[in-house]
Amino acid sequence: MPTLWVDADACPKVARDIIVRAAERTDTPTWFVANHTIPLPPSRCVKSLAVSHGFDAADNEIVARLAPGDLLLTSDLPLALEAIEKGAAVMTTRGEMLDKGNIKARVQMRDFMETLRASGEHTGGPKGYSDTDRREFANALDRWLAKQR
C-alpha cells in the first residue's frame, strides 16, 4: 500500500479530517509533515512529523521521503512538480489530480501571477474552501485509495 504524504502547513482542517478518516478506514500509512506540530487524533496509521523551521524545510523532507506510487496531498505547485518527477501521484485538497500533463503549465501560471503581485498588481487570493471543494476532495481521495486496493 502506498503512503499518503500531506503538506500540512497549508492543509485546511476540514481536508485534514477527511484524510484522517480515509486513512483509518483503508489502513493507509499517512504522514502529515509541517514545520510545526499538527494536532491529530490517536491513530495506528496516521502520524505527524514536525520539521525544523526554515524555508521549504517541510517540502524538502516530503521529497526526501516520497517513493514512486505514493500520493502527495498539496496545493504547493513547485512541491507537486518535484513529487511528480519522483514518480508520486499528486492531488490538491480540492480533489484535482496534478500530473506530467498539467503541472508545468500550472507552475508557469503561478510564476506569472507571482510576478504580477510583485509588481503591485492585486490578483486576489485563492477562493475559500467550500462544501463542494470538501465533497470533491473526499470523493477523489476515496477513488484514488480504492484503485490502490
UniProtKB/TrEMBL annotation:
Record Pfam families: DUF188
InterPro entries: UPF0178
CDD domains: PIN_YqxD-like
Family per similarity comment: Belongs to the UPF0178 family.
Name of the protein this chain belongs to: UPF0178 protein LOKO_01805
Species whose genome carries this gene: Halomonas chromatireducens
